[in-house]
Design brief:
Blueprint: H1 14-26, H2 47-57, H3 61-68, H4 72-80, H5 88-98, H6 100-105
Helix pairs in contact: 3-4
Length: about 110
């Protein structure tokens, strides 16, 4: 059985790149600006607030863990304070706190 492999041709024009850089350096070509506004980092969420988020959603600990897509033992340990959420889990908990309808819609 023959399989098709895609081999997209990528072209690179070094002369055009050099011309653009030189044009920018000489002031003949404007720089393209792109501004991206990022939300501030999420502060750590205490165990009591995690429990309040869960109760605000009207969930059991197991249901809460399923909504957040984490093991039940992890959600329970967050509430007990034995573990602290970090990274994406903190951001997701902040979304659950501020926009609980978003979790139910996902």
């Amino acid at each position: 059985m023959k399989t098709k492999t895609k081999n997209p041709e990528i072209t690179f024009d070094a002369e055009a790149l050099v011309a653009r850089v030189e044009g920018f350096a000489a002031g003949r070509q404007p720089a393209r600006e792109r501004t991206l506004k990022l939300p501030p980092p999420v502060k750590p969420i205490p165990a009591k607030q995690i429990r309040a988020i869960r109760l605000g959603l009207g969930c059991t600990q197991t249901e809460f863990a399923v909504l957040l897509n984490v093991p039940t033992v992890t959600a329970i340990s967050w509430e007990n304070g034995t573990r602290k959420p970090s990274g994406a889990a903190l951001r997701l908990l902040a979304v659950a706190r501020n926009h609980p309808e978003a979790l139910h819609a996902a």
